[in-house]
Amino acid sequence: MRWDNLAENGRNATDPESATLPGDIALFGTDAVTTRTFDTPEFRGITFHEVRARSILNRVPGASRMPFEWTVNPYRGCTHACVYCFARKTHSYLDLDTGLGFDSQIVVKVNAPELLRRQLASRRWQGAHIAMGTNVDCYQRAEGRYRLMPGIIGALRDHANPFSILTKGTLILRDLELLRQAAEVTDVGISVSVGFTDPGLWRSVEPGTPSPERRLDVVRALTEHGIGCGVLMAPVVPFLGDHPDQLRATVRAIASAGATSVTPLVLHLRPGAREWFMAWLAREHPHLVRRYERLYAEGAYAPKWYQRRITRHVHELATEFGIGPAQRGTPRRIPPATGPVPAEPAATQLSLL
């Protein structure tokens, strides 16, 4: 494993996690890696590489299409095992496999909370918005064991630093009270990713995630406790999840859950993800391979006309079902809690149905 690739004084310009605060060098050192496996059903076949990171605040490359400049990613690799995940390529920088390796070789930055607290206190840090869950899910299955997010949210709360979280994981409800506390002092945006509600498509392309219904339960629970939650309707999968009836059913379910907004995002296939997804497509839907090759002939993104068509249709449905303007989980502050907060759910993240 090429740990030293991310432990040099230089930075990998193609790695979204290699750009850190000015003056910081290296993400972690080669002598700071502990590899573990756990013989429990939920972690069988998964290897965890525990590292002590040297930096946790990552600057997004200038060429990125992302609407934020800074991220925090406590994990690399993701047991959600989504066949389309654009972050697969990042595993190649460690000489790890971008297919099954991405799903089962998880890098855990065990000192992320304490490191973030120290970096937020730096005079060089200007309090910019921090996005989480944008590379891999910070509430994936590993979070149930390592519990990094409570410390991370606590640090952001204590520094009144604005942040947002995007997740497919139901474990975020464990941290509901921390999110409430943070939202009393700074802007907090929460979005849940639900690209479709079709159970067959979910089981095929997102096998390690909670079901769409469970994710919409998260939206419902957050909304009921005063934390507005948007839905990133992603990905809309061409020819498999883009039929008008499917889009209608998904937007209707999102509206019924009380989402504050819905933002559609058509599947994109970057290098690393493209190869894995196309291999899956050839196995499961070989008749669609040529159609995908034509649709994505120009690169990672579907043509603008297709993206505009999907976006327009979803926005029309959002208006019909009474969802507000399409935007990712509107950052907002909330008043102090006036009622009891539900107890931590038992093994919520691991229950997929």
Mean pLDDT across residues: 86
Residue windows where pLDDT falls under 50 for at least 5 positions: 3-16, 18-26, 336-353
**Overall 3D geometry?**
globular
State the order of secondary-structure elements, H for helix, E for strand.
EEEEEHEHEHHEHEHHEHEHHH
Percent in strands? 15-25%
Main pleated sheet: 7 strands, mixed
Structural class: alpha/beta
Helix content: 25-40%
Strand arrangement, major sheet:
3-4-7-8-9-10-11
How far the N terminus sits from the C terminus, by CA atoms, comes to 35 Å
Compute the CA-based radius of gyration: 20 Å
Helical stretch tally: 11
| Strand element count | 11
Please, could you describe this protein's structure?
This protein has 353 residues and is α/β, with parallel strands linked by helices. The protein contains 11 helices and 11 strands. A 7-stranded mixed β-sheet has the order 3-4-7-8-9-10-11. A 4-stranded mixed β-sheet has the order 1-2-6-5. Helix 5 links the parallel strand 8 and strand 9.
Report a brief summary of the structure:
It contains eleven helices and eleven strands.
Question: Any key phrases for this structure?
Answer:
353 residues, 30% helix, single chain, disordered N terminus, four-stranded mixed beta sheet, 11 helices, alpha/beta, seven-stranded mixed beta sheet, disordered C terminus
